[in-house]
From TrEMBL:
Domain NADPH-dependent FMN reductase-like: 5-138
InterPro entries registered for this protein in UniProt: Flavoprotein-like_sf (IPR029039), FMN_Rdtase-like_dom (IPR005025), NAD(P)H-dep_reductase (IPR050712)
GO MF assignments: FMN binding; oxidoreductase activity
Domain of life: Bacteria
Protein name stated in the entry: NAD(P)H-dependent oxidoreductase
GO cellular component, one term: cytosol
Length: 180
């Protein structure tokens, strides 16, 4: 069986992103996958606007990101929450790619996550994504939100046993969907 190509990234441009740490942790749990962990900082894009699109077309970075999604077998995404919604960095790339292809997520299996330092673990942004992403081609196999990141995360795993079981169950279901 060939290894599945997974695109994994955080919906953040923070160099110390806790969501990127969660994505890396999830990626390490996969047994038969080649995972490319992307950094939104590597996709330099102008702020999306219809005038920008009409005058200059689709930026190369947006086209490259779209191709990475096209060529993947699955997606792991952990969303940062800024003021109860997506970070600007994520929203911008999401907007650009949606102009190239309305089905941004290409009907690929997705493990959707979020985390935050507080007790809600990015629940507001997760709720937005769960409502929006399926209409944009996301096949959300599992979603997972990690509350109190600083208390529940270590590089070797989720420290709270019950939360870790939920995390590993989501990864298991994602891997199972990749085999179909």
């Amino acid at each position: 069986m060939h290894k599945k190509k997974i695109i994994a990234f955080a919906g953040s441009n923070s160099k110390q992103s806790i969501n990127k740490k969660l994505v890396v942790l999830a990626s390490k749990q996969l047994s038969n996958a080649d995972v490319a962990v992307l950094d939104l900082n590597d996709f330099d894009l102008p702020l999306y606007g219809i005038d920008e699109e009409n005058e200059n077309g689709y930026p190369e970075a947006a086209q490259r990101f779209n191709e990475l999604l096209n060529n993947s077998d699955g997606i792991i995404l952990s969303l940062a929450e800024h003021n109860g919604a997506y970070s600007v960095a994520f929203k911008n790339i999401f907007d650009w790619v949606s102009r190239i292809d309305k089905l941004v997520w290409k009907n690929k299996p997705m493990l959707l996550m979020s985390t935050a330092p507080g007790g809600r673990g990015g629940a507001s942004v997760m709720e937005i994504a769960l409502g929006k992403f399926p209409r944009m081609g996301a096949d959300i196999i599992a979603n997972f939100s990690l509350p109190f990141f600083n208390d529940n995360y270590s590089e070797t795993g989720i420290t709270d046993k019950e939360i870790n079981i939920e995390f590993l169950k989501g990864i298991y279901n994602f891997e199972k969907a990749l085999q179909k």
